[in-house]
Amino acid sequence: MGITVLFPDENVNSVIHGFIPAGRANHYISSLKAGSIVKVDRFEVAICSSIYKITDNPFLIHFISPTINDEVITSAPEINLQS
Q: Which domain of life is it from (predicted)?
């Protein structure tokens, strides 16, 4: 159980699956808003299991205890929400 997030990658027109474990959800939930753009640092990248795969990207961004996410207010890239 946890929170699933999708990270659009503007450089390759792809989406990367992200996962926040239930034990860390309360720490990150207040900074995650639908449609917001966040910068994420200090995360783990893993191969996404085919059982849980929700994107074409083979990788998964996994939030770990040192993960930091900050909302990007200025100079945020434009993301086509229809993609």
A: Eukaryota
